[in-house]
Design a protein that fits this description.
two-stranded parallel ribbon, Peptide Deformylase, five-stranded antiparallel sheet
């Protein structure tokens, strides 16, 4: 089932997600619905807060990036099969140079800005069967992970912009929260007058 994506301005996007366990109700169905929602919106990642759930769950399918000719072969190879579910993720270490990349977000349609992130991230997480793993990602895969991880920490990519950039996009963000935008997918707006 395709779920509405929560728009910028909704308080759920600012909550730190709660850890879940194998007893979380209808988890497999929720993950399937999140995947369907993400693909419907042409996204490469979707976090539970973006569908209104303040839990530590996000999904990534970065395989569309594997076709980008501007990326080096190692990055394309890493992204080709990068399709995972992350539950209760915790970053252990971020390292390396911070580098810019133009990011967007399904909760903030039609806004794209360069964001600086570390080139390497090591983290622990559980898969949908609650097996625990520790992994290290680099390059674009690390960036996609960090973007989705921020969502379960109540952080949006716009928080990482300079104060000047924030001022320049302020009106766009206000319009998103009021539902004064068009997206190619279902959205839920926090400030629509009933």
């Amino acid at each position: 089932m395709i779920l509405p994506i929560v728009a910028y301005g909704d308080p759920v996007l600012r909550k730190v997600g709660k850890e879940i366990n194998a007893d979380y109700p209808n988890l497999k169905e929720l993950i399937a619905n999140m995947k369907e929602t993400m693909y419907n919106a042409s996204g490469v990642g979707l976090a539970a807060p973006q569908i209104g759930k303040d839990i530590r769950l996000f999904i990534i399918d970065a395989s569309p990036f594997a076709e980008d000719e501007d990326l080096d072969e190692a990055d394309r190879e890493a992204l080709k099969n990068f399709n995972k579910v992350f539950i209760n993720a915790k970053i252990i270490e971020e390292e390396g140079e911070e580098w810019p990349f133009n990011e967007g977000c399904l909760s903030i349609p039609n806004v794209r800005e360069d964001v600086y992130r570390h080139e390497k991230v090591t983290f622990e997480y559980q898969d949908e069967d609650f097996n625990t793993y520790t992994e290290t990602l680099t390059g674009l895969a690390a960036r996609v992970f960090q973007h989705e991880y921020d969502h379960i920490e109540g952080v949006l990519f716009t928080d990482k912009l300079s104060s000047l950039k924030k001022r320049l996009i302020k009106k766009k963000l206000e319009n998103i929260s009021k539902g004064k935008i068009r997206a190619d997918y279902r959205m839920r707006f926090p400030n629509l007058k009933k």
